[in-house]
Design goal:
- Keywords: Membrane, Transmembrane, Transmembrane helix.
- This is DUF2914 domain-containing protein.
- Pfam families: DUF2914 (PF11141).
- By secondary structure, this protein is mainly beta.
- The chain has one domain.
- It is 8% helix and 33% strand.
- Strands 6, 7, 8, 12, 14, 15, 17 and 18 form an 8-stranded mixed beta sheet that branches. It has a 6-stranded antiparallel beta sheet with strand order 1-2-3-16-13-9, with no helix packed on it.
- It is rod-shaped, with a radius of gyration of 37 Å.
Length: 284
């Protein structure tokens, strides 16, 4: 006879302890990441504040007026010529830089900027023209001024082709392609074109007269600045290439309001170009 053994067990779950959650902060990593983000933001702000707006044009730097009457500083070969008179006016004449021989095609240039480099001469109405622009260093130029000299009557030649351009300017288009009153020169080109009536806030102390002259290589022209029909400055400029760009500048004192005129004449007094304008006073 077999025996039957019955075994009974009681299974109960043992209580389990709930896991504890702990957080550990890596403060060093947080500090490094924050520093990198902050430096990146500062770099972006600094770059934006110091970016250059290419549309803005800065006039050329003005020069200090001298206390000595008729003091003259002349530097040849693309340097500036400063003449100070008793009224504190300063005239600056730019001499040509040495140019290389280039060949280029023609395009119209009446009162439009020349798109070539300063060493190039663009010739209108001619194709495949080669200009030899190698220039010997010019001799020192003497600029003359007269405070009380009256107006000299200069007229265009009888066969001149007189053309009105650039807001009140007149040119003999046979010899001059551009005559522009401007507030500055950049890369031997005017940065703007001034109108006939100017406020004193339209410029900073100095005005520039830019001219582009054709077919007068080896000759000398003069820029004559008149204020109220009195000759204030006479600046000779030597032409050294077939298509030549040059300019002169004149300091304008706050008291020198009223009518002004700039003339471009030959050594014989033949008028090549002129520009009349008026500087308005506060009363105007």
């Amino acid at each position: 006879m077999t025996q039957r053994i019955v075994i009974k067990t009681s299974v109960s779950k043992a209580p389990q302890a709930s896991p504890e959650v702990s957080y550990q902060w890596h403060w060093r990593r947080i500090f490094v990441a924050s520093s990198v983000v902050l430096l990146f933001a500062v770099a972006i702000v600094y770059g934006l504040m110091n970016s250059v707006n290419a549309i803005e044009m800065t006039p050329m730097d003005t020069q200090l007026q001298s206390s000595r009457d008729s003091e003259l500083t002349v530097t040849a070969n693309s340097e500036s010529i400063d003449i100070d008179n008793g009224q504190g006016d300063t005239i600056q004449a730019q001499q040509p830089e040495s140019n290389s021989t280039r060949s280029h095609s023609a395009s119209p240039s009446d009162s439009l900027p020349v798109d070539d480099e300063p060493v190039d001469d663009k010739v209108a109405d001619e194709l495949d023209f080669v200009a030899d622009d190698e220039i010997n260093p010019p001799e020192p130029v003497q600029a003359m001024q007269s405070d009380n000299e009256s107006e000299t009557l200069n007229t265009f030649a009888a066969d001149a082709n007189i053309t009105n351009v650039a807001l009140g300017a007149q040119i003999d288009s046979n010899l001059v392609s551009r005559a522009v009153l401007t507030t500055g020169i950049a890369d031997r080109e005017p940065i703007d074109v001034l109108k006939e009536h100017l406020e004193q806030t339209d410029f900073t102390e100095k005005l520039f007269f830019f001219t582009e002259i054709n077919n007068m290589q080896g000759q000398t022209v003069q820029h004559l600045w008149f204020h109220q029909d009195q000759l204030m400055a006479e600046i000779p400029l030597q032409i050294s290439s077939i298509r030549f760009r040059t300019y002169s500048s004149k300091n304008i004192m706050p008291s020198q309001t009223g009518p002004w005129r700039v003339e471009v004449v030959t050594e014989q007094g033949q008028l090549l170009a002129q520009k009349s304008f008026r500087i308005l006073s506060e009363a105007d």
